[in-house]
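ok trying this again, last paste got cut off
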Amino acid sequence: MLEIITLSIILSIDALFFGISLGINNIKLPKRSLFSMTITGLVIVLGAVELGDMLYTILPSAKIFGGILLIGIGIFLASDTKNKNSIKTMLDNPKTTDINNNGVIEVPEAIAISLALSIDSFAVVTGTAYLGYFFPFVIMLMQFVFLILGNILGKKIKPNIKGKYIAIISGVIIIIIGFKQLI
C-alpha cells in the first residue's frame, strides 16, 4: 500500500505544478474539463494495467522486466529537465495548452493535457501491473486533488521551487523502486 501511495504521489507531481501554473496565469479549469482530464487519465492507466498483465503473462521473469522498465522511466524523468521539446515544456507553460487563448481550459484541451500528464503514469503502471486495479484509481484521485490544490495555491503564491528539481527527485525515487523490484 505504501508503494501505491508513494508512486501515485510521484506520478501526480506534474498535475500539482500544472495546477499551480494555471492558477498563477489565471487560466480557469472548469469542472467539466477537470473531470474529462480525470476520466481520460483513468482510461489510460487502466489500459496500462491490462498491458502490464499481458506482459507478465507472456514473460517468465516479468518482475525483472517491470524493475528494468521502472529504472528506465526514472532515468528518463530525471534527465528530461533540459529537453525543450518535451511534454514537460507544455506543463511548465500552461498558456500553450489554452489553444484558443480564452483563459479557460476547454474539454478538448483538457483531454490533450491529460494525455501528457498520463504518459509517465502509463509506463510506470505497465511496469507495476502486479499492484492491481486499485493503483490507477489512486493515481487519478491524486492527480485530481493535486490539480485542484495546485490551482488554488497558484492563485495565492508563486512557487520558488523549479519543476526540474521535482522531475529529478521523482525520477530517482522511481529508479529506487525499480531496483527494489529487481531484488
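PB: full thing came through this time. Helices lie at 2-24, 31-58, 62-79, 87-92, 107-127, 134-156, 163-182.
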